[in-house]
Amino acid sequence: MTVHLSARGLGCERDDRWLFADLTFSLAAGELCRVEGPNGSGKTTLLRILSGQLGDYSGELHWCGERLDRHAKALRGELLYLGHRAGIKDGLSALENLAWYQALGEYRCDDAEAARWRALERVGLTGFEELPVERLSAGQQRRVALARLHLERRALWILDEPFTAIDAAGVAQLEGWMAEHRDAGGSVLVTSHHPLELDGAMARICLDGRGGHDVIAA
Ligand SMILES: Nc1ncnc2c1ncn2[C@@H]1O[C@H](COP(=O)(O)OP(=O)(O)OP(=O)(O)O)[C@@H](O)[C@H]1O
């Protein structure tokens, strides 16, 4: 099985405090992993390091066997990162937001417009495609961000608090998409402050907020 991400001896310090140190784990194709820990324990920082956005860490990180610091571009083409902020532009419509992501060159597909409509249908935004997103509810705005999961296939999803503002049906749906992605050979790293149906099927990286951690297999 292809190992997507592997970390050896990973550490990160903020304000003279280790968020985590000597963290070793791997995430292979077809695996799910939940990163958990109290507020401020370093979950977002870890996900930003693993997605190649932060370079101030110690230890080694590999993407598909290649050092991440030397092959960040290879990872970018295979990664979908959703931050804990929705990352959408208020004045643009849902369709325009997705077009903006496509225009950034992050998404390649034959029929970009059809892909946008299809993605918005999947997240339950039929009828809301052309309104400025500032006129959508918080949960609908989060769904605009989640529509990126359906724009194009990416091997690795890194999702930071993707369930924020999502209703119970939406949580079940998103868990279903994560399971589908895994079954298709993708991998997922996710944070959530709430219990999930998929918990039993996920490995866990538990940060304790004091610099310690546990890595627990699925
Ligand atoms: N750029 C930065 N400079 C200095 N300190 C930072 C920076 N980014 C984060 N921190 C600190 O690192 C710690 C971990 O932050 P992080 O956002 O990773 O935590 P978290 O586990 O995701 O928290 P939450 O559950 O509240 O989202 C916090 O104490 C934060 O203040």
UniProtKB/TrEMBL annotation:
Domain ABC transporter intervals: 5-218
GO biological process: cytochrome complex assembly
Keywords: ATP-binding, Cytochrome c-type biogenesis, Membrane, Nucleotide-binding, Translocase, Transport
Family annotation (SUPFAM superfamilies): P-loop containing nucleoside triphosphate hydrolases (SSF52540)
Domain of life: Bacteria
GO MF annotations, alphabetized: ATP binding; ATP hydrolysis activity; transmembrane transporter activity
ATP-binding among keywords: yes
Protein name as annotated: Heme ABC transporter ATP-binding protein CcmA
Organism: Halotalea alkalilenta
